[in-house]
């Protein structure tokens, strides 16, 4: 806001006087700075004089009139609102999101009983709950988020012994906001933030997911910067944030008895076992599941009726035989990561080397994902090296995902042309090379997939220096990027892709022993 108000373009359009009024009222910190004071939860319900609100309303109408007189309304380009549809699908029912009228009464009782909520903030929370009840979910969040920030700031200051930070909303001092409250260390850059120990890892993960992680909804930022249509928000996000507030409030309820199987019981139990949805490790998990789902679609290629008997165009029979180095690479991986010597998933993947079809390994890949992500680990405040490792693994998987889609699309297109007898000689040769390479492609993808799983498990051990692993993964990423490029619709270079697969498998076999 303060940066916008400092632009010369805004002054030229609106005029100096309106901009000065805006600077005095809503930013920068040298003025009243109402925008930050309110959005960061520094103000209780009756602490902002109604005159300020009235003046802001008059200013908004006046600015509209100025713009109307100076510009053609059709020339104003409005940035599209941010959509939360994908996020709503991800978070829906991870915590309870639907509250009945009787549930709402229970929610209010907890807020009244909890030391987490100051009496001066309680009216704001009650208004938020009423807005939820009336299905005004966006406006509900406008009140819930500042109230949550206010309560967490008190807790942060208390458990870290920095009580002077509670009321910091001064022009010359940095505000204590979610950025600082949820930071791994205090302002000195050394002392660990004690808030995670105070409210628990699961509650911190909830907060990080909704407020901080780059690929999460970043709700407070989006709403407070006007990027959201408040009237179209669904109950999922509002209910999720309400459950977050309840989960924190329940920690400081002394006299409240939770009824078994009630909505509050679900908030408590789900909150205690909450696992991050938007940490890069969690995103990698979902991307790997998507990769296996796309690999399953390769089975469609097996249905292409290209047998010896009815193949009068000289097209090849589909080759799903695994690459000759596939078992060697898997054994080398298992030797390099001893944790997986007794893994059933790895044994199943090794067993398919004698199978008639590479596609029999897809279910084993899914089992391996669940096995690896079932290993206890902490995602909160991961080290820089671990975050870099996870970032590389995500790029590897996304390149493979892109390749799998490209191969399926190319095979489907050429098969349809073949069925319509529209496949020219050069295209037949290209289709020939594609079908004869499918087994090798799957072998390469399977080996790299296992490598990614093992790398995730290995990175959980904080005693490991990940620098060699990072260098190794960068080289594997280079192979995967080339693989994706060569299989694109613009190139369709199947033999070159085949060589990339062979070279990468060989590289993995010869290089693994050097990273431990």
TrEMBL record:
Chain ranges of the DUF4209 domain: 1-63
Signal peptide: none
Transmembrane residue ranges: 441-459
Keyword set, alphabetical order: Membrane, Transmembrane, Transmembrane helix
Protein name (database record): DUF4209 domain-containing protein
């Amino acid at each position: 806001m303060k940066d916008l108000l400092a632009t010369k373009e805004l002054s030229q359009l609106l005029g100096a006087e309106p901009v000065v009024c805006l600077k005095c009222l809503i930013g920068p910190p040298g003025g009243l700075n109402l925008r930050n004071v309110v959005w960061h939860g520094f103000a209780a319900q009756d602490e902002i004089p109604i005159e300020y609100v009235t003046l802001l309303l008059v200013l908004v109408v006046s600015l509209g009139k100025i713009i109307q007189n100076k510009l053609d309304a059709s020339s104003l380009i409005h940035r599209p609102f941010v959509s939360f549809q994908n996020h709503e699908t991800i978070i829906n029912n991870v915590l309870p999101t639907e509250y009945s009228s009787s549930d709402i009464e229970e929610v209010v009782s907890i807020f009244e009983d909890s030391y987490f909520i100051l009496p001066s903030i309680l009216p704001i929370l009650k208004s938020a709950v009423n807005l939820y009840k009336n299905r005004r979910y966006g406006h509900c969040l406008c009140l819930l988020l500042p109230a949550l920030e206010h309560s967490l700031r008190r807790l942060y200051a208390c458990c870290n012994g920095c009580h002077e930070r509670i009321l910091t909303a001064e022009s010359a001092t940095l505000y204590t906001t979610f950025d600082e409250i949820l930071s791994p260390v205090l302002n000195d850059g050394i002392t660990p933030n004690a808030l995670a120990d105070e409210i628990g890892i699961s509650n911190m993960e909830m907060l990080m997911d909704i407020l901080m992680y780059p690929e999460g909804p970043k709700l407070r930022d989006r709403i407070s910067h006007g990027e959201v249509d408040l009237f179209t928000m669904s109950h999922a996000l509002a209910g999720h944030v309400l459950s977050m507030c309840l989960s924190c409030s329940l920690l400081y309820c002394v006299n409240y008895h939770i009824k078994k199987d009630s909505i509050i019981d679900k908030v408590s139990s789900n909150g205690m076992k909450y696992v991050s949805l938007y940490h890069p490790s969690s995103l990698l998990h979902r991307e790997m599941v998507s990769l296996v789902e796309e690999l399953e679609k390769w089975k469609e290629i097996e249905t292409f009726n290209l047998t010896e008997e009815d193949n009068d165009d000289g097209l090849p029979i589909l080759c799903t035989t695994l690459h000759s180095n596939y078992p060697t690479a898997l054994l080398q991986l298992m030797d390099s990561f001893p944790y997986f010597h007794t893994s059933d998933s790895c044994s199943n993947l090794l067993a398919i080397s004698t199978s008639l079809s590479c596609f029999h390994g897809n279910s084993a890949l899914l089992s391996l994902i669940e096995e690896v992500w079932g290993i206890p680990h902490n995602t909160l405040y991961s080290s820089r090296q671990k975050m870099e490792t996870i970032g590389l693994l995500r790029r590897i998987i996304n390149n493979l995902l892109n390749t799998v889609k490209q191969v399926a699309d190319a095979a489907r297109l050429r098969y349809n042309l073949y069925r319509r007898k529209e496949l020219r000689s050069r295209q037949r040769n290209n289709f020939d090379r594609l079908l004869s390479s499918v087994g090798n492609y799957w072998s390469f993808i399977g080996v790299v997939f296992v490598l990614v799983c093992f790398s995730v498990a290995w990175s959980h051990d904080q005693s490991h220096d990940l620098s060699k692993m990072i260098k190794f993964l960068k080289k594997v990423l280079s192979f995967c990027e080339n693989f994706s490029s060569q299989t694109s619709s613009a190139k369709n270079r199947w033999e070159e892709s085949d060589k990339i697969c062979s070279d990468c498998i060989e590289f993995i076999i010869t290089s693994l022993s050097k990273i431990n």
